[in-house]
Design a protein that fits this description.
The structure holds 2 protein chains of 2 kinds.
Chain A (H helix, E strand, L loop, with lengths): L1 E2 L9 H5 L5 E4 L4 E4 L9 H5 L1 E2 L4 H13 L10 E2 L4 E2 L8 H7 L21 H4 L6 E8 L6 E2 H13 L9 H4 L1 E3 L4 E2 L7 E2 L2 E8 L3 H12 L5 E9 L9 H7 L6 E5 L13
Parallel strand pairs in A: 4-5
Antiparallel strand pairs in A: 1-6, 2-3, 7-12, 7-13, 8-11, 9-10
Chain B lengths: L17 E6 L9 H12 L6 E4 L3 E2 L21 H7 L6 E5 L2 H14 L4 E7 H11 L5 E10 L7 H7 L9 H13 L4 H9 L9 H12 L4
Antiparallel strand pairs in B: 1-4, 1-5, 2-3, 2-4
Helix pairs in contact in B: 1-2, 3-4, 5-6, 6-7, 6-8, 7-8
Classes of the chains: A alpha+beta, B alpha+beta.
């Protein structure tokens, strides 16, 4: 993303709405400027701000007059008054930033928007996590911190060494040059994204082991990690297996996503 | 997409936060899914949702790409649910957000009766979802627990800001903007209801809960830390 200096009036609204804090008013040019290293191409500024199309010269003049008079004016905080944002044509590898950070762009590998994962949301259809199994979503960077692929790789290496298999239909897995070792392709390691999710599945008996591995690696990362743990319920709808393990590890379980099991396969069978 | 899973707060803080969403699976039940997803959203209307949305186009309050200068004084702040329903044009995730359990329960009951064939999930406190399922006569199929945030949590903002900003799980509601809205409410520059409309427009899939956000902003107004 770039901001057109000919249009920007340095109102500062965009500096607040950037999830990465990557927009600042450059005192040298008195215009909003994007820190390209930190920008994750999430398009929150472009998609989220309403846009006016005011004359930039007029707005700058008014702002200068108000400033001289020490008057505080009260613009709407979610508006770019001059529609100054100018999306760029992104090329590889920078395009990866947008694929993981702009939730409106579906991933090629899964067709799912956002981070591209289905977790247990469609487990009633996919049967991905079976009885006796636990599906982990290990999410990096959220909320508002971001993550570099080189950090994700550190976690992936450790999990791979432990013999854990990565979900095939996951956007990060599709960017691994060697899935067996968890190695991510080199040309994207220095790309930063808003968040990304590693997905794995293990037998219930390995739940504690995986969590302890995650605890160990996350200490070395400069980002935040959000763990999601998905599992099948018993035939009566109760879940008596995984929750006790998590609670024993010190987690207080507050929130969950519950699959109601109402889904069913409705597509016509392919003609053979 | 774990966009509703990791909302920040304890179980009690989700008493007015029930997200029910429908999703189809590529190659399994995505054929003719668009009318079903629209039907899912339409079915929510009688139960007075506080937001509706789809993951491709956003929620019931959206930004404008061509604001007129005078529109600042008469800005639309009412959610446009019909626009969400009419705008859903591709297989995606459709979500309905409720501010009370009874409405969520009744909605889930009607969704079950409609037998759309879509995967339907409830995202709220664990007990809240269990009660919804129980009321609808549903045995839970699977559950995905949130274990919260770990690692370098020193990077995270304070609790009120975190509760607001994590209501867009895609991270489109920035912590700085949520903090600014808390500050503006404290200063009396905007009411919580006004601040909520600014925040909600950034949520790109419509799962932001304006009712909960308003309560959080009201609470934050008088908080000392």
């Amino acid at each position: 993303m770039r901001i057109d200096p000919a249009k920007c009036v340095a109102c500062g609204n965009c500096t607040y709405v950037c999830p990465m804090g990557a927009i600042y008013i450059d005192p040298a040019i008195k215009r909003a400027t994007v820190n390209r290293d930190e920008c994750v191409e999430c398009y929150a500024c472009y998609n989220g701000l309403s846009q006016e199309h005011l004359n930039p010269t007029l707005v700058r003049t008014m702002r200068r007059v108000f400033q001289m008079m020490r008057l505080r004016f009260d613009p709407e905080p979610d508006v770019c008054p001059t529609a100054a944002f100018a999306p760029e044509d992104l090329v590889w590898p920078r395009v990866v930033r947008r694929a993981f950070s702009d939730p409106r762009v579906p991933h090629e590998s899964t067709g799912v928007e956002g981070r591209g994962t289905e977790e247990v949301k469609t487990n009633d259809i996919s049967g991905r996590v079976k009885v006796g199994e636990v599906g982990f979503t290990i999410e990096f960077g959220r909320p508002g911190v971001g993550v570099w692929f080189r950090e994700i790789q550190e976690m992936a290496w450790v999990l791979a060494r432990a013999g854990v298999a990565f979900e095939k239909k996951n956007p990060i897995t599709s960017l691994m040059s060697d899935v067996s070792s968890g190695t991510i392709r080199e040309d994207i390691l220095n790309e930063k994204v808003l968040s990304a999710i590693l997905e794995i599945k293990v037998p219930v008996a390995r739940t504690e082991e995986v969590i302890r591995l995650v605890w160990d690696v996350e200490k070395r990362l400069e980002t935040v990690v959000a763990l999601g743990v998905g599992t099948r319920c018993d035939a009566d709808g109760e879940e008596r297996t995984v929750a006790p393990i998590l609670e024993q590890l010190g987690y207080k379980l507050e929130r969950a996503k519950t699959n109601t099991g109402l889904g069913r396969i409705t597509n016509a069978a392919p003609v053979s | 997409m774990t966009n509703t899973l990791h909302r920040y707060g304890d179980a009690a803080s989700f008493h007015d936060d029930y997200v029910v969403f429908a999703i189809c699976s590529r190659g399994k039940n995505d054929e003719d899914s668009v009318p079903k997803l629209r039907r899912f959203l339409e079915m929510a209307l009688p139960f007075q949702p506080v937001n509706l949305g789809d993951a491709r186009h956003g929620g019931a309050l959206r930004p404008s790409k061509s604001m007129h200068p005078t529109s600042h004084w008469k800005r639309e702040a009412k959610p446009d649910f019909q626009a969400v329903i009419d705008g859903l044009d591709t297989p995606t995730t459709a979500a309905a957000v409720f501010d009370n359990r009874v409405a969520a329960e009744d909605f889930v009951k009607s969704v079950k009766a409609a037998d759309l064939g879509l995967s339907v999930n409830i995202s709220t406190s664990i007990d809240g979802a269990e009660q919804c399922c129980h009321a609808a006569g549903i045995c839970r199929h699977s559950v995905g627990y949130s274990l919260g945030f770990e690692g370098k949590t020193g990077h995270l903002p304070n609790e009120d800001v975190l509760k607001l900003s994590t209501m867009c799980g895609h991270g489109m509601v920035s912590a700085s903007f949520a903090k600014k809205m808390v500050d503006w409410v404290k200063e009396g520059r905007r009411t919580p209801a006004e601040a909520v409309t600014y925040l909600a427009r950034f949520c790109s899939c419509g799962v932001f809960n304006p009712a909960r956000a308003k309560r959080i902003l009201e609470d934050a107004r008088t908080r000392t830390k």
